[in-house]
Structures are given as structure tokens and as C-alpha cells.
Amino acid sequence: MSQAPPTPPPMSAIELRDEARDFDVPSHATTPDSPDSVVVPQQTPAAQDIYQQVFPQLSDLAEERNFIGIINIAELHDLNGSHDRSCTRLLLIAPLVLAYMVLDDLTPAHHVLARLPENVSLHPLSCALAALLASASERQYENTYARAQELFQMSQQSDFPDSRLGKTLALMINDFVDEFRRRTFSLISQAFACLQVTEAQRLLGLGQKEVLSIANDNRWQFDSASDVLRPVHTSLPTFTTKPVLPSSVMTFDRVVNSVAASEV
To answer: Which residues touch 211 (CB under 8 Å, ≥6 apart)?
Structure first.
């Protein structure tokens, strides 16, 4: 039995239009009166809560390095938010905590995290912020840099809940680390007339090359024979009879913590 030749494809504009009409699927099936009709409701975007609405302002302020602005806006809307158990609250909380930390105002940062409900405080992002804040508060320098790096890496993961929040956090974490290092070197300068390079590396979380660059920018000299840093213009009292020795780790921590406490 011979088969009929296949139907040739449509070639003319009229044929193409007719075929398109034959295969066109309307958004609403046939008519509402048809028993087989299926009415597909139009999807509307979900309404944003106050935290989602406010976050773009905080992100813009972070790019401007306007940390006071972040604090003012985030505090206002967080304290007046109506969905305080929602994890979208972290869109305000995370930039708020980091803004306080950049400004070295750690007590209110603790208060912000303390007022979170349990379900939000147990979120991985909240835990990472709390760990970083604890290390910074206790002047655990090496831990502070390590936990800042962990938080940075978390914010850059492909499965991070909000990509713009991740970008904002990365920016603010870098700002915090830069300020933390600057304040630490300022404390070093106030506390000692000389410092072992290895201790400076530990306290600044950097390699020797980067430490020497910072020291040079702050007018400190490096004595390669003793591996010691000294300010360029260090005037010692005339009654000094013993050479100034590099600080020990224990002495350094005690003095720096004392100077830090006096600044609070």
C-alpha cells in the first residue's frame, strides 16, 4: 500500500499566518462558558515588606560610604517594622551592624543583634555577624580578620539569598577591615617606640611586604638586622640608660587594649 506524500510546509505569508493562528494558544481557554475551559489568573508580583523596600537606600548609602546615613535609616525602620520575625529583616540588620563596626561603635551593634527574635538570630548570616563582632570587641586581631573573610566568602556564594545584599556586605566588610587596621596601627603608634615585624603582621593580618608598606606610609622605619619597626622621629628621654627593646606579645596586647579602652 503506497503512502500519501507528506504535506509540504507552509511557504506563503498567508499560509504562515494561518498556521500560526491554528497553533495559537489563548491566555484564557476558549470561553468561560465552555466546560473544558481553564481560566489562568494573571500573576502579580508579591508585595515587598518594609525591609525589602528600604534596603536599596542602604545599598546606595554603602556605596557612598555614608555609614551615619545607614544607621539612621536602618534604626528607624527596624524599630518600627511590622514583620520583626521575618528573615528579610536581615536586609536592614546586616548593613546596620557593619556600619556601627566601621565606625568602631560596637556597643549599639551588640544591642542590634540582641533584639533579634530567636529564629532570625539563628540564621547563618546573623551568626557570622555575631562572631565577627565578638572578635572585634575582644580585640582578637587574628580571629577578626579570619571571621571577616568568612563573612565575605559567605556573601559571595552563588546560593546567597540576595545578590545585591551580598555585594553590599562585601563592600562594607572591606571598609570595616580597612578601618580596623587603621585604628590598630594608630594604637601601635601610641603604645610603643618599636615593634617586631612579626607582631605587626599578626595585629594587622597582613604579610611582611604589606606591613612594611603601611609602616612606611606612617613614617616608620624597618631595621632589617633586628626585624624591628620604629617611628622615624622617636625622641627618648635623656635619662634612659637601657636600650628600648621590642615588645613581647603579652605586653603589646596589654598596652594596646589599655589604649583602646581609654578611647571608649
So the answer is: 197, 200, 201, 204, 229
